[in-house]
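Kindly review this protein for my students:
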Amino acid sequence: MSARTVQDQAIACKTFVQQAAHADAIAPADALRGTAMFSTKGKRGHTLGAAKDQYFEAVDTSLPPVIQVDAASLMRVSRQLESMAKREGPRIAFKAKGTILLLNLFDIVAVQAEGNYVSLQHRPHPYLVHESLSSMADKLKPYGFIRIHRSVVVNISAVEEIKPLQTGEYRLRVRGEKEYLVTRTYKHNLRDLAQLWVGTEWLCG
């Protein structure tokens, strides 16, 4: 199962849970009692009948069985799916001290140029990789990384705040409270930070 599929299942599951919880909150306890319509199958097809003060029952055994699941169970499954999505997400592999390390790309907030190396800004400590920033920027672009400076690439999912400066540049704050400068050369890339912008006409203007 792909990471995208697992993520979609997690989102669908969470949405269903929220809708179920909302329905439970607004529906009175006696809403399921009263006159209930039921279906019986005879030689000439289905007929409808009514039964007062009865709980609804599906009497047509040709229908698939209904599985009853409580909200707590759905929430537990949703958390498990989210955990799987993170665990199976895209990872980066690189050599470090004679071994090959694998890191989840979600945990890398930025990549900075360090001479002939790049520094992967990963908590609790960064990693140095012998590669150019331009090469890393090209490889990471399909996974949600954008270039904001000639020496910095950031993970768009890690950006939490954008602050415009009087110089026409911007300052980004990422997870962990670290800040990076966005130069005017790369400010057009800020549009990729979100799928929807509301009330931000000043951005990239």
In short: The longest helix spans residues 3-26.
